[in-house]
Amino acid sequence: MKKKQLEKLKKQFRPSFEVARKMLFESLEKKTVEKYNLTTNVYIKPENKQEMAIELINDDATVNNYVITVPLDENFNIAVKRVQSQEKGFLDRFSSNLADEVASYWTPSAPVASEAVSEESVAEAEPTTTEGMTIATFKEQMEAFPKFKVEHTEEDIRVVEQTAKENRLLATISATEENQFVIESALERKYKLKLDVIPVIEAFAQTPLAHRS
């Protein structure tokens, strides 16, 4: 009974979907200022409620397009729900990566959120003090994305996208070594989606092997 009461109490203190979305907008505005000194206004377009507008407020004559439009699709809604569930570190990480992406449109020298990785190269992440992520949690988070599936073998864990023609490989994480993973070009090309997916892959890859089960 106490456990159920605790879960009910936690849900009562969670922000609504609209509040979580507003938190994400405000965090993005804050990150563009902190990282690139770019003042932005993030809002839902009045003429199309299914699109988010990221508007540059700075008076910069070198900028031609002051507004970036991003569809509020299912992938974006998943990100908002993760903010709503108060997943530790997600809001800061996601808004920071998104700030890198949008700043690259206006500031040529701005780094993109994730450097392109060839299919043959292996990314090595620095160890962190994170509590880690189990394979069950990783699978649940990955398969929350439409058409995503996790395949697990003795050698590796693969994230694939199921299409009508084939299963497209998106990423491979080593099942025998920590901090070893490959991000395929098919995932790199997914502009908004990679901002949400790659950090989860990195977190799982950094998890000690003994803590994954």
Present the secondary structure layout.
Layout: H1 2-12, H2 17-36, E1 40-44, E2 51-56, E3 67-71, H3 74-84, H4 90-106, E4 123-124, H5 135-142, E5 148-152, E6 156-162, E7 167-174, E8 180-183, H6 185-188, H7 191-206
Antiparallel strand pairs: 1-2, 2-3, 4-8, 5-6, 6-7, 7-8
Supply database-style keywords.
213 residues, 2 domains, 7 helices, alpha+beta, 8 strands
Largest sheet: 5 strands, antiparallel
Name the strands of the widest sheet in spatial order. Answer: 4-8-7-6-5
Structural class: alpha+beta
What's the helix-strand series?
HHEEEHHEHEEEEHH
The rounded distance between the terminal residues' Cα atoms is 28 Å
Portion of residues within helices = 40-55%
The domain count comes to 2
Question: Shape, please?
Answer: globular
With helices defined by DSSP (H or I, 4 residues minimum), what is the helix count?
Answer: 7
Assembly type of the shown chains? single chain
Mean pLDDT: 79
Radius of gyration: 19 Å
The proportion of strand residues reads: 15-25%
Strand runs, count? 8
What is this entry, summarized?
The protein is α+β, with helices and mostly antiparallel strands.
Can you walk me through this structure?
This protein has 213 residues and is of the alpha+beta class. The chain has two domains: 2-106, no CATH class; 123-211, no CATH class. The protein contains seven helices and eight strands, in the order ααβββααβαββββαα. It has helices spanning 2-12, 17-36, 74-84, 90-106, 135-142, 185-188, 191-206, and strands at residues 40-44, 51-56, 67-71, 123-124, 148-152, 156-162, 167-174, 180-183. The strands form two sheets. Strands 4-8-7-6-5 form a five-stranded antiparallel sheet. A three-stranded antiparallel sheet has the order 1-2-3. Helix 2 (17-36) crosses helix 4, helix 4 crosses helix 7 and helix 5 (135-142) runs antiparallel to helix 7 (191-206). The protein is globular and about 50 Å long. It starts with a helix and ends in a 7-residue tail after the last helix. The model is unreliable at 112-130 (pLDDT under 50).
